[in-house]
């Protein structure tokens, strides 16, 4: 009798376990499979998986062009007599939208200067990328435009930090996932990752919800502050309130981002060679970009974009105080110094925006509130600086065509 009861109890336990497996594990497994197979149909956000690049921007999503760039479509074959430049960079090429981004403003300045649209400035930036990834993007898409000049926009805030030689940033169900490119597994064109897609999706949505709540609190706090200031005082203020954006971060998150970027400048870490792998990878990628362009007789210039903590002493002090750091432990312009030393050794031209941004920041805000990108004033200043430095090259080009006196000679001085 006892033996029969034990046998019955074992059967019941086994049946219960089988039922649990069928009602939990099997459905979850099927959800995972469906999220892989149906990804192209279920997830149609801004990004999509690309086996060569890791990810790319979905063509014509949110008004972008055929390659996913934040710009209109241009014919791949350049019109005879026009000068065409590409601006390769990261999310800085998206701030301000298609019309307010510095690349569009730069093209407008050339049109105003020459009186007719003879200089094309094509925005070929992908958010979330570093220089090595931008090199691959340039080879796959950018060079199809057959440019005369390529400008690499290098943002010192994270372009060194993010440049892990083995990183491959892929898109899984509209989510950034960083994997080791040496271990990538693709089956039938789908990337296979060692994590649950469903769990990643839930985590991402929860994180977005949390940050959105914090951002809303930050916006409400700023609005209350502005409302408390009298219109008369605002009219007398030479440094107006900081421009906001929908992408505002909570103050806590923003300061943490800036603290992580400042960590690259710590003398102890630099001297110990902590970042050498990243630095060498970036410099090698720039040299490779220069080599490829030189072989195609395309001119190359690197534009160096500063981080806000480098040009805004108030933010630097805020980060130092928040995390109890010693300012003497940091060389905040080390990224520019490392980059310029390499560029000069390789005889690669560059434009460093740091000093102009530092001077102008004393008069007006150049970055969005609690968001690492330029505001409208910052985009305009970047366009002005690039125009001043690039105009001699376009003038020289048109002079070589003998077209200076054929409608291309400026009839007024540009506003600098």
Rounded to an integer, what's the Rg over CA atoms? 26 Å
Strand order of the largest sheet: 4-3-5-10-11
> What is the first-to-last residue Cα distance?
99 Å
CATH superfamily: SGNH hydrolase
- Listing every helix as H and every strand as E from the N terminus to the C terminus, the arrangement reads HHEEEHHEHEEEEEHHHHHEHHHEHHH
CATH class: Alpha Beta
Number of folding domains? 1
Number of strands: 11
- Globular, elongated, flat, extended or rod-shaped: what is the shape? globular
Helix percentage range: 40-55%
Q: Unreliable stretches, pLDDT < 50, 5 or more residues?
A: 228-238, 409-416
Strand content: 5-15%
Query: CATH architecture, please?
Result: 3-Layer(aba) Sandwich
Name the assembly state. single chain
Could you name the CATH topology?
A: Rossmann fold
- The residue-averaged pLDDT reads 84
**Count of DSSP-assigned helices:** 16
Category from helices, strands and their pairing? alpha/beta
Main β sheet profile: 5 strands, parallel
Written overview of the protein:
There is one protein chain. By secondary structure, the chain is of the alpha/beta class. Helix content is 49%, strand content 13%. The chain contains 16 helices and eleven strands. It has a five-stranded parallel β-sheet with strand order 4-3-5-10-11, with helices on both faces. The chain has a two-stranded antiparallel ribbon with strand order 1-2. It has a two-stranded antiparallel ribbon with strand order 6-7. The protein is globular, with a radius of gyration of 26 Å. 34% of the residues are buried. Residues 228-238 and 409-416 have low confidence and may be disordered.
